[in-house]
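Example S7 (structure tokens).
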């Protein structure tokens, strides 16, 4: 089994988080198109902030993402950026709330 490590100037890391975002009251509001929009938003934020979305999956009432990140970012910074951008774009696209 080979693991891809993140190699930076002063560290070698393999930090991953499994992020699950659930809708309020577990209501089924996500469609295939809305999940595609959310995945695209996640990947754009990841590119800008220098982390990687390794896997993305979702259902009508939740979204799963496996994220690999550098030690200089905190989990709360990543989650705030992902949820902020994706919810803004979701609302602008006219999907139901």
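Recovered sequence:
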């Amino acid at each position: 089994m080979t693991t891809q490590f993140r190699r930076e100037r002063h560290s070698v890391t393999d930090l991953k988080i499994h992020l699950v975002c659930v809708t309020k009251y577990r209501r089924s509001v996500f469609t295939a198109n809305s999940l595609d929009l959310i995945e695209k938003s996640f990947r754009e934020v990841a590119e800008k902030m220098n982390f990687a979305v390794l896997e993305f999956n979702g259902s009508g009432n939740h979204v799963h993402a496996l994220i690999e990140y550098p030690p200089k970012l905190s989990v709360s910074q990543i989650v705030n950026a992902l949820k902020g951008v994706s919810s803004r774009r979701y609302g602008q696209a006219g999907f139901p709330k």
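Notes on this example. The longest strand covers residues 15-22.
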